[in-house]
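Example record used in the benchmark description.
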Amino acid sequence: MTKITHLLFDCDNTLVLSEKLAFEACAELANDILNAKEIDARYTGPQLLADFVGQNFRGMIVNLQKKHEFQLDPDTLESYVTQEEDRVIATLKRKAEPCVGANEELKKLAASGNYGMAVVSSSAYRRVKASIEKVGQDKFFPKDHIFSAATSLPKPTSKPDPAIYLHACKVLGKKPGECVAVEDSKSGTLSAVRAGIPVMGYVGSYDGEEEQAEMRKLLKETGAVVVMNEWTEFERCLAEIENSVSAKPEEKLA
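Model output (structure tokens):
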């Protein structure tokens, strides 16, 4: 019987309300890039959030290059990535707040000692660390249990690529089936699903019941086992996943 031993949390809009702040900070830079390439298209923070939620800046620019048919050489791209990190981190250090109820659940989990915990994000390590420090969550995650698709891998990538989840499992010494991922976006959910990790979706960071309902449906369709509306539902949702995982061997024998 498979036993869940580790919980892998996405950061942006799962642990920390950071996506809107981040996309507002990077919209100006994205528009500067488009202007430099003499492309008329312009984006607002909310537009980028709608189109690229769950992806890091590098992944977003790669997709913008495809959409608008322009190219950046690798050194220029890395320069922009660093600029974006600096701008976003400065904003997060001033304004970031925890997702409602997240700190309380993390405190309970840490006190129980029943699970190992890690952060698995598309965002750069510096940004993730700044975010969780600002909201007082860094005490729950050792520095070597913070994994970044932009920073931790030999070749930077972004969710929905499963590479960062597979890397985290390898470093933690765990099989994917021994972990649960907590994700708020389609790209993050798909990343974990592709890695073979059961997913708990979270929609509490989305605005309004209609948007939450749409995202709940999307995350379920993408492969989330269960979706929580609020962090107060975490314990129940985790139990549901654990029950579904423990039931699988019996289902195969039936």
